[in-house]
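Worked Example 4.2. Consider the chain below.
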Amino acid sequence: MSNRELVRSYAEPLKLGRRKGEWIDVRLPDSLVGAPIQKVMQQTPLAPKLANKLLQGKGIVLQGSNLRLRLFPAESIDFPSDWMELNVLYEDDFTLVVNKPSGIEVHPSEHGQRRTLAHGVASYYEMTNQNVRIRHIHRIDKETTGPVLYAKNEFAHYQYDKAMREKNIERIYLALAEGVLEKDKGTIDKPIGQDRHHSTKRRVSETGDPAVTHYEVVERFADHTLVRLRLETGRTHQIRVHLSAIGHPLAGDGMYGGKRGLIARQALHGERLIWRHPWTNEQLSARAPLPDDFAEALEKLRK
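Applying the procedure from the previous section yields the following structure tokens:
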């Protein structure tokens, strides 16, 4: 079967049945019962490349009204496991969402690095008898807290990467900015590039990549503002750079001009993640509770 034959034409994904080990059942509507496998596969959200891979590996079985797909082949976990207490916000056969604490990185930034969130997820998969590779879909900064999305198979990884490119995964943040923002809501549209003098720092630059952040004020204090932000793009340090650029750096963010008296890290928390199920297209969401240090900073300001 050629890629052209497998061009997707589905309007609504076929309904998933039960998972059985490495396989999952897909229930066909009456209109597809007895149809050629090419036509059936056109109605699924499987990318042509993956559909062909399954066909060649005998990972597709069509019997009457039941389509069986080997979407969950056993994989070798590709990170050594480091046990850590994980706060799992959401999990199903395709997806894992973990609430990352401050002080650890999502993924190693140098060879041989250990005790990142990837190593913790590897330990979680090992302890729960899941033979799954580590596939993070996005990253957040080491000191930022909040949800991180993982795909648990190749199909979900493809779907989530595509959703990220098409800006269909929404990330909502809470940030404590220094100073008092006058407008109740606004948009910061400033391109971001790498700082010439600091390899890990970013800055607003006319030659940088497009970056758009939407914000709304949640609560004002004497000399700080709690804001909720939605990212339209996902540049490194985007919220930190954008708020600093308009004169309101994050509390605790020494790299971008914030002071560390109120909180010992940048006051940035991923409050909510919104995405769609890779097969059913159902909207899903996960909310991460405010971490203690952030909550304590707000209490100090309210007093």
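The mean pLDDT is 92. The first strand starts at residue 15 and ends at 20. Compare this with Example 4.1 before moving on.
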